[in-house]
Amino acid sequence: MITNVSGVLKTYEVFKPDEKHLTAKSGKHEDLKDTVAISDKAQDYQNVRTALSNAPDVREDVVAAVRQKYASGKNIATASDIAEKLIEKI
Fold this sequence. Notes:
Number of strands: 2
């Protein structure tokens, strides 16, 4: 809750958005502008994110090969085969 409205108005007067400020280096009145600097790490993250968004969610070549094997009835792995392979890797 704001209890001191005059204090808020005084603050607004000091920091007007359109006000020109005196810069320390030149001693002249110049418009100050906001700048944004993005770190190298953030740029790398953005590049990876863009590459991942362009990559397909499903590898169609792998899916097509599995579908072909399934349709032919050859080399179909059973649940026990998969379980054995998982246990071997542990």
